[in-house]
Amino acid sequence: MTVASSIQSLFLDGPAGRLEALLNQGGENATHAALVCHPHPLYGGTLHNKVVFHTMKALNSFGFPVLRFNFRGAGLSQGKHDDGRGEVDDVRAGLEWLNEQFHLPLIFAGFSFGAAVGLKAACSDERVEAVIGVGAPLSAVESRNYDFSFLGDCSKPKLFVSGECDQYGPRAKLEKLVESIPAPKNLVIVPGADHFFEGRLRELRESIEAWVGDLLA
């Protein structure tokens, strides 16, 4: 694997204003570029989230340039939180930026809220070759109830990684969802891990690296 560590701070032109972003540079012979999206911004989620960081490191280890950005209203990003509606367009802006910069096949990864809104944008984008959903939030939390029915039309390679004790993504419900969607698909349940993979971030990273390695083989 090629390890690329140089980081660029930048702003993207988003549909609701500038989006604060970080790009981890890729290798000269990168085969893909990747986007990683963060969890719910109203509950502390930002591009600096530990799960997002480790997901980025897993993808960057293959030499991919990896973009992370803050959703509208988070960090230094302009705009106002839109309950997951406008955030889908934020993801599209991130994918568009990566395509313009690198002209490479794209891989999408999102954690929790980032998976719920990001997969919706990525699955319908022909430039995205494969998608990763980490800690997919399948159980309603307060007023948040995410619809994953669009995955029924997603024929791209799909990886889902969740903790055995994920309080927002019960294993049985996740297994039922994955069973119902088209192949290719993979589900990894990390033993003993909660929604945030506390103490299990290494296992999360290794799961993503193993799947991407198979994808590239």
What does this protein look like?
The chain is α/β, with parallel strands linked by helices. It has a single domain, classed as Alpha/Beta hydrolase fold, catalytic domain (Rossmann fold), CATH 3.40.50. The chain is built from five helices and eight strands; from the N terminus they run βββαβαβαββαβα. It has helices at 50-60, 86-102, 113-123, 171-180, 201-216, and strands at residues 7-14, 17-24, 33-37, 66-69, 106-111, 128-134, 158-163, 185-190. Helix 1 (50-60) runs parallel beside helix 5. The longest helix is centred in the middle third of the chain and has 17 residues, at 86-102. The protein is globular and about 40 Å long. It starts with 6 loop residues before the first strand and ends with a helix.
Characteristic key phrases:
217 residues, alpha/beta, Rossmann fold, 8-stranded mixed beta sheet, 5 helices
